[in-house]
Design goal:
Helix content is 45%, strand content 19%. α2 packs antiparallel against α3 and α3 packs antiparallel against α4. The chain is an alpha+beta fold. β1 and β2 form a beta hairpin. The protein is elongated and about 60 Å long. 13% of the residues are buried. It is built from four helices and five strands.
Length: 174
């Protein structure tokens, strides 16, 4: 057995697992169809989608951590989403001296972040790791993304377990 190129393999997986809008319509159509035909399949769709999304993010995070470039960035502001969760907007300069301003590729927030003020963090220097091939894809070095991914895996596994168990006749929830 020859050498296996993990970098090329993970890059292909990430490209294939891109959750773009054109595939979102297909997911919604299948979901609505099975909602009326056999609702337990909806749990399977949600579980598999959550697990696939998690796998995609883990591969992207590992790729950035393994092949990325560590550099200092500066928090310039925070952006709140519709639910009030805040995500830092970070500005940094790449090795090629290109200035990038944006949100981390993956960031988890807590409910406490909705009411917390982050004014003290503005202009704070943080360590980031960015993808050398695509510098707009970066992560905070010391931020723990593991909790959000673990919760998503648990939700995906529970939904998948419930649906497969029901389809095999092991439980009668639906």
């Amino acid at each position: 057995m020859g050498n296996f190129d993990w970098k090329s393999f993970t890059k292909k997986i990430v490209i294939k697992m891109d959750f773009s809008k054109k595939y979102g319509i297909i997911y919604v159509v299948f979901f609505v169809f099975f909602m009326f035909y056999k609702p337990v399949i909806c749990f399977l769709i949600l579980g598999i989608t959550a697990l696939a999304y998690t796998a995609n993010n883990i591969l992207q995070l590992n790729n950035i951590r393994r092949n990325g470039i560590e550099i200092n960035g500066k928090i310039v502001s925070y952006e709140s989403d519709t639910e009030g969760y805040k995500t830092p907007i970070i500005e940094f300069q790449t090795i090629e001296e290109k200035i990038i301003t944006g949100k981390p590729s993956f960031h988890t927030s807590l409910d406490l972040d909705k009411v917390r003020s982050f004014r003290g963090n503005i202009n704070k220097t943080v360590k980031i790791i960015y993808n050398s091939e695509s510098p707009e894809k970066f992560i905070l070095k010391d931020n723990s993304n593991g909790f959000g991914l673990i919760m998503l895996v648990i939700v995906g596994l529970v939904f998948t377990y419930i649906s497969v168990g029901n389809l095999l006749g092991l439980n009668t929830i639906f």
